[in-house]
Amino acid sequence: MTYLSEKSNNPITLSTLVKYKKTGEKFSCLTCYDSSFAHLMAIAEIDVILIGDSLGMVVQGQTSTLPVSVADMVYHTQNVVRANSHALIMTDLPFMSYATLADAVANARAVMQAGANVVKIEGGGELAEIVSTLAKNGVPTCVHLGLTPQSVNVFGGYKVQGKTDAQAEQLLNDCETLVNAGASIILLECVPAELAKKVTEKFAVPVIGIGAGVDTDGQVLVMHDMLGVYTKKVAKFVKDFLKDSGNETGDILGAFVNYHNAVKNKSFPSVEHSF
Ligand code: KIV
Q1: Which distant-in-sequence residues (6+ apart) come within 8 Å of 113 by Cβ?
Q2: Low-confidence ranges of the chain (pLDDT < 70)
Q3: Which of 18, 27, 252, 259 could form a disulfide with 218 if both were Cys (CB 3.0 to 4.6 A apart)?
Q4: Where are the domains of the chain?
Q5: Which alpha helices (H) appear in 187-236, and where do they start and end?
Q6: Whether residue 189 has its Cβ less than 6 Å from ligand 1
């Protein structure tokens, strides 16, 4: 197999994602936490890299994302940006690091100065003031709704969200509030495919899905899940691209390329990976 070299002269920006949304081109997103994998993702032309607080579970061996610190997010963001000048870089603000407006501003500043292009925060309409303050200060936000792992203790486990009409309506209203406040990206985790499709069609901002069906503008997976190396709990929406995508050589770069292509040609996710 011949691979393209890193396209550092063609960085993905928020405008690229908006253009993709308008033209119907899907985009790929993977989590990444270090330079070696970030380099391979540049070669595979993964569009968006998420330095997710999932690193608490897949890198640190914690039982949830709650113990992750802002210093952890800064460290892993710095590691990734050193090796990838192609992808849009999105970094999570971890648990309780945006509980107040002052914390949100200070911690967004820390991860942006580490190299993030976008910060991701979990929640609903209550985040509007944070989103608008960050937007006024030049910080684009991705708002993460549906199953928000930082609230696992409120949900009582990792469960599909937005299943009832009332929950679906609440999620649509939350998205509207956050988009009006200036959110740049919506990320939906573990929601029915039909609801994710509605959100994607209703709003002009790019929508990324994980366990949210094939109709969102982009797809994200946790890298350790799609390489089959995090086996403690394998969610329905995960596909192992190292084993199950005709990747005969079993190489990691091939898995990233196959994932990117499967998202672009809409063969992933299929119905078996959706709710
Ligand atoms: O932290 C993370 O990796 C995430 C994804 C599950 C979307 O938020």
Answers
A1: none
A2: 1-9, 244-250
A3: 27
A4: 14-273
A5: 193-202, 223-226
A6: yes
